[in-house]
Write a structure and sequence with these properties.
The structure is a homodimer of 235-residue chains. Chain A is built from six helices and eight strands. Chain A has 235 residues and is an alpha/beta fold. In chain A, strands 1-2-4-3-5-6-7-8 form an eight-stranded mixed sheet, with helices on both faces. In chain A, strand 1 and strand 2 form a beta hairpin. In chain A, helix 3 crosses helix 4. Chain A is globular. Chains A and B meet through helix 5, strand 8 and helix 6 of A and helix 5, strand 8 and helix 6 of B.
């Protein structure tokens, strides 16, 4: 199984993602992974590796072009992305193209998953009618970038949130549901009781942010739910 | 695999459930199934058979003591049950005892699942601290019977509802969430977009009730979610 950094370019900006090809020389579905607000970290790379271990071609995208950013700079980058839906889409689409063009990736079988900010990226690809079969969000934000795409959504949408997530107020959930209905989407919302933001991220507890906490049980349940949806959409 | 009617008695009322033992002579977890408002029908018996085919000892309870009731009479029965939480609990507990006492049932590994009214029964057993590892509801009602039990809930709770279910208004969902938090439960709420009430019941469409409809996709997804939770709680 090959796991390597992979550099590509969008609007003159060099982005460095992380490719984990688990296809073992055959053709396999491709999974795009979109990172959290801090950027592409070991957390998301580990998930790419885990998907490759299951036989998928996995590509963890890079939205910023810079790794290991100080928090303030990562927030700046995140703001820039959220302030420009077209930029977000160009960068996400470019990464999807990288994935689809891999020799062992079956470009007719693509999915995108995202964590936090990456959930927004996954939803935006669904709104933009990217050729993905499903968009999956782990503790996703439901804020829409400025200039967000809109229209019917054909990708299956699965969002999994902690009920105590301070990043996702009730109004945002309601807006998400409203949008999905309008878009005629096949959507699912899974709510974990007693769970906060970043429940998949073991690194988060060290940052001691109120309402943010790793939760092994939710992490494992959410991962299983995602795998079930993959089985459904790729069968 | 043995599948037989099974008669038991509560307060002098003869109840006839349906037992499907899939343990094949070994010891296996036991699953109690609680029916919808119309009573114990082929729908729930079929589910018991399906669980037995997976190796579980399954017992579909009977809340009414009468089968194939005309709609008005079934509604009367349902009202009686909802109007008397203690009666509901006695009948549900008796059925759980029937299940637990089966030769091949591992009485330390019990779960209860319910459909519609049966979801209420499943939750009530959880509230009553019955020795179950989880309570699962398919298009469950969230109304509480009069004289409902209360207190901490240790069984894992998974409720799966259609977003368009007219039986479960937003206020009821909010009350459910509020109760689960108060009870310190490990709870999950899964919402299927574009799905109504009775989504697991193929027989429902013939009745042409607005907002009630079979939905194969939600049915299959919900079943998988339940099986995953069984794997988790019985492992």
């Amino acid at each position: 199984m090959e796991q390597v950094p992979y550099t590509y370019e969008v609007d003159g900006v060099r982005l460095t993602g992380f490719l984990a090809d688990g296809a073992r020389g055959k053709s396999a579905p491709g999974i795009l992974l979109a990172h959290e607000a801090p950027g592409l970290t070991a957390h998301v790379k580990e998930r790419a590796g885990r998907l490759a271990a299951r036989g998928y071609v996995a590509f963890a995208l890079d939205m910023y072009g810079r790794m290991d950013l100080p928090t303030a700079e990562a927030q700046e980058q995140s703001k820039q992305i959220m302030g420009d839906g077209a930029l977000l889409r160009r960068r996400a689409r470019a990464a999807l193209d990288v994935l689809a063009s891999q020799a062992h990736c079956d470009a007719t079988k693509l999915a995108v998953i995202g964590f936090c900010l990456g959930g927004i990226v996954a939803l935006e690809l669904a709104r933009d009618r990217a050729p993905i079969r499903c968009a999956v969000g782990f503790h996703p934000g439901f804020m829409r970038p400025i200039g967000s795409a809109s229209g019917p959504i054909t990708a299956k949408v699965l969002m999994m949130i902690g009920d105590d997530d301070p990043v996702v107020p009730a109004e945002d959930r309601a807006l998400f549901v409203h949008e999905m209905k309008q878009a005629g989407a096949d959507w699912q919302l899974h709510v974990f009781g007693g769970v906060g933001h970043s429940y998949t991220n073991r690194e988060i507890d060290a940052r001691a942010i109120p309402g943010f906490a790793y939760n092994e049980r939710a992490d494992s349940r959410a991962w299983e739910l995602m795998l079930s949806l993959f089985d459904e959409v790729f069968s």
